[in-house]
Amino acid sequence: MVISSLADSLTRGVESVGDRVSEALFEPVIRLGVTGLARSGKTVFITSLVANLLDRGRMPGLVAQQEGRINAAYLQPQPDDTVPRFDYENHLAALTGPQPHWPESTRAVSELRLSFKARPAGLLSGLQGPRTIHLDIVDYPGEWLLDLALLDKTYEVWSQETLERIANRNEATTFLAQAKAVDPSDSHDEPKAQSLAKEFASYLNAAREAGFYDCTPGRFLLPGDLAGSPVLTFAPLPVEGHGPRRSLHREMARRYEAYKSQVVKPFFRDHFSRIDRQVVLVDALGAIHNGPQAVEDMRRAMAGILSAFRPGRNAWLSQLLLGKRVERILFAATKADHLHHLQHHRLTNIMEALTREARDRASFAGAETAALSLASLRATTEEIRTHNGAELPCVRGTLLDSGKQAAFYPGDLPEDPTHLLGPARNGSEGWLGEDYEFMAFAPAHLTLRPGDGPPHIRLDRAAQFLIGDRL
Ligand SMILES: Nc1nc2c(ncn2[C@@H]2O[C@H](COP(=O)(O)OP(=O)(O)OP(=O)(O)O)[C@@H](O)[C@H]2O)c(=O)[nH]1
Ligand SMILES: [Mg+2]
After folding, report:
1. Which residue owns the Cα nearest ligand 1 atom 5?
2. Which stretch of DSSP H or E encloses residue 7?
3. Which of 120, 205, 243, 303 is most deeply buried (CB count within 10 A of its CB)?
């Protein structure tokens, strides 16, 4: 245990020295982490961001672009040979091809390197030629960050907390019945362990479908090549003490520990520890549509995610990071093209309030944070419609289900975000007096002018916050 954490921090030390040397002497590298819970819009965000950084006609908010200092941007082979490449070309073809469609769900880590040739700002700009700056974009599931909380917990504590939290969820009924029916101090029985793990995984999947955000351990949702292996064959059980040798309890606890050391820690060591800038994408509109419970869950998940960025909270992680920290974190509400721009500031207010609360809750001191609402790929146009004598700011687009064009009014977000966050925290069943509908739109047919990337909302502002100061 001690040896492995020592080794971790040594590797990290050598690497960061290497990073710093190459940064000082050669070409600076910015590692931008892009995360968010399932379906929050990570793939579309990265695809459109890269397309708009390659063709910057729609990026006036990126200061280096506005000052004419970016001479070129181009894709390059990424530095990490064992991480899958982000499939930029195929995702872009899906979004902007003759039959535009949203890209497939991804759910694993992937990476892409974009390099800039840019002249420095200010006084140096006339004296120095263009420098090369690399932007390494790393896409990873937000659920993996929530797994950090497991590192502090024993199997027994985790079991108890999980069983309590899910006790009243319909999605968990079958699993809970099964967990109650076993005696964890019975001797270990593999088919029983497998059946419990399988039922727990189907609960997690159903919970995620139902809009819950606390669906950890994250790898249960996206097992990949770990499917069926012992590190994913455990489940929370009503346990006390240590359990007798060779019992189901002991074996479950052993696997839970293996999950922590062989799944959670390697992710933090190999990916998380190297990130400089981070964007956390949040489908806030989707949560609002799902009701107060979902909004409250989302707030908790944001606090959980932020606590991974709070240095010092976790001894293992602080040792791994050796004082290095993520410098900037952007919390962005995605899919803002579901709202007329008259309502965008309200969505931003909600994100700001959520971020603030999440920060307070994680008693966060560290990175610079900001909140924003954006659309990575704008799928709608705006129009004002008169309905019962009132003017409604609507958006128009192609409905994903039927392929028909429709104008759509999603409901009136409150000017004061506490009108949403208050009921969410107080456990209200539904929103008072207002219903929030959000339709799924298909991506629009595009005819792009040369030099323009795909249409978006505030992607340039997001890019400026995340990397603008380094260009
Ligand atoms: N209207 C609109 N819809 C969007 C936008 N971005 C994402 N979406 C919708 O959100 C869905 C999920 O987007 P993805 O980018 O695939 O999300 P993800 O986070 O990569 O999802 P996973 O890979 O499943 O975790 C898309 O299929 C679209 O329906 C946007 O800018 N505008
Ligand atoms: Mg994806």
Report:
1. 335
2. helix 2-25
3. 243
Q: Looking at residues 382-410, what average pLDDT do you find?
A: 90
Q: Can you tell me the distance from the alpha carbon of 462 to that of 269, in angstroms, rounded to the nearest whole number?
A: 27
Among 167-181, 226-240, 270-284, 426-440, the minimum mean pLDDT is found in 426-440
How close is the Cα of 242 to the center of ligand 2, in Å? 40
140 lines ligand 1 (CB under 6 A): no
- Best residue among 335, 340, 401 to mutate for probing ligand 1's pocket (most ligand atoms within 8 Å of CB) is 335
Structure tokens at 310: 């709070």
Phi, psi of 114 (to 5 degrees): -120, 135
Q: Is the peptide bond before 292 cis (omega within 30 degrees of 0)?
A: no
- Bin 386: left if φ > 0, else alpha if -120 < ψ < 50, else beta: beta
CA distance 156 to 148: 17
Sheet holding 381-387, edge to edge: 381-387, 390-398, 405-408
More confident residue, 311 or 249: 249
List the residue whose alpha carbon is closest to atom 9 of ligand 1.
41
Q: Which ligand is nearest to the CA of 338?
A: 1
For the chain, how long is the longest CA-to-CA vector?
A: 76
Q: Is the pTM of this model over 0.85?
A: yes
